[in-house]
Amino acid sequence: MQFEKEVEILASREKVWNFIWDVDRFIACVPGCKEAKTIEAGKLYSATMVEKVGPFRVEFPTTIEVLERDELTRIRAQASGADNKIGSRMKLSLDVNLRQDGEKTVLGFIAGVDILGKLAALGHGIIKRKAEQVLDEFAHAVKQRLEGES
Amino acid sequence: MLRRFRMEEPESVKDVSELLGQYGESAKVYAGGTELLLAMKEGLVQYERLINVKNIRGLNDVTSENGSIHIGALCTHHQLETSPLLHENLPALVKLEQNVANVRVRQVGTLGGNLCFAEPHADPGTLLMALGAKMVAEKSTSKREIPAEAFFVDAYETSIEADEVLTEIRVPVPDSKSGVAYLKFGYLERPSVGVAIALRLNGGGKSIHDATIAVGCAGPAPKRVLEAEELIKGTSIDEAGAKILKAGEIAGHAADAISDLHGSQEYKEHIVGVLLKRAFQNALSQC
After folding, report:
1. Measured distance CA(B213)–CA(B247) in Å, rounded
2. How far apart are CA B191 and CA B23, in angstroms?
3. CATH top-level class for B62-172?
4. Residue B20 and which of A10, A101, A141, B100 are 20 to 30 A apart at CA?
5. CATH code of the domain made up of B178-286
């Protein structure tokens, strides 16, 4: 499943960039994300993703690896996690882009998400819809937080 | 494999509500189990306690009161497909129930369980919405009616509160100038698309006095399509017949169709239009 999202933030590119690398503040904007830890600054992180669709609850302890980092411009990362209770795995590839547009910064995401195992029984469409909701909420929270601080 | 759980056997709705309040998300109401136990066996959900409501008296009757049919939430699909009262008053619901899943599911699966589990590819919610049904939700201290369109929130989510129990479904009986149809399409037991329409003609029988249209299965939850209804309401039968294709297009878009193994979004939207046209003709032939 591929997702693309862009959000315009009334803040400088430096401010948005610094925000992304401030793990605690950044993670607070990701719905269902908890227990974020820095394993190796700028390279390796861990977090637990918790999501619910009706009665179905998944909890993915996730490792996030930063693969590429172009200062103020781009981050490429990958993440993977497994919920052993329900026998499902999640793989994520993430491309984050920043570009200045006047006083605004356009923060763009391209995410590839694969859900494997029993969770897939819920149906591709339902999972995709949930992932879109999470991405929308995340983009909204980032914008609100950064613009609120301006 | 089904993991160990404790089965609670309450004797009243009040007791069920209290147990739900006490155990929260670690407990779940067990009505028929045809969906719930499958999900539990697959390990997709785990509950420490199941609250068996099947022994509570008075929740599996079909009665008629003040122009409405009251269906106990614990009525099985089989009970509904063979109910003389439903045959006489709500034949469209009988036809739907005759085609729910398979004979094993119909024998033990309950209407209340089906509605509360809110599996997106389920039939009854869509027709009940077109019929203007209301769901009765009870808890220890209160009782309320929820219109069908407010009952379904999202895939697997309803507006039933954590300590509420669905006890009854109240369906107004359509009058003699009315026609009701539910049509579905799917490859296997679960439908890809379901469309329901309830029509009422005016006194002279020449124009559409009222129309209710609902679509289900294509998207995350059944949905009423007011815009499509407005298009044919108040028009002559011939005009409505000409406008039903446009209404189908509107309903297709409104269905919030999701691409999945049952079909692509575009395909489902198209099927909604095809089914609405046929359902309209079917309903009209009954008026």
Report:
1. 9
2. 34
3. alpha beta
4. B100
5. 3.30.390.50
> The pTM is what?
0.88
> What residues pair up with B213 in beta bridges, in sequence order?
B197
| Interface pTM, i.e. ipTM | 0.73
**Mind listing the pLDDT tens digit of every residue in chain B (287 residues)?**
788 999 999 999 999 999 999 999 999 999 999 999 999 988 888 899 999 999 999 999 999 999 999 999 999 999 999 999 999 999 999 999 999 999 999 999 999 999 999 999 999 999 999 999 999 999 988 999 999 999 999 999 999 999 999 999 999 999 989 999 999 999 878 899 999 999 999 978 889 999 999 999 999 999 999 999 999 999 999 999 999 999 999 999 999 998 877 888 999 999 999 999 999 999 999 98
Domain count, chain A: 1
Q: Which of A86, A124, A129 sits opposite B44 (nearest CB)?
A: A86
Cβ–Cβ of A54/B155 closer than 8 Å?
A: yes
Residue range(s) in chain B whose domain bears CATH number 3.30.390.50: 178-286
Residue B64 tokens, joined? 């008629």
Give the count of alpha carbons within 13 A of B36, CB side only: 23
The CATH number assigned to the domain with range B6-52 reads 3.30.43.10
- The Cα B2–Cα B137 span in angstroms is 29
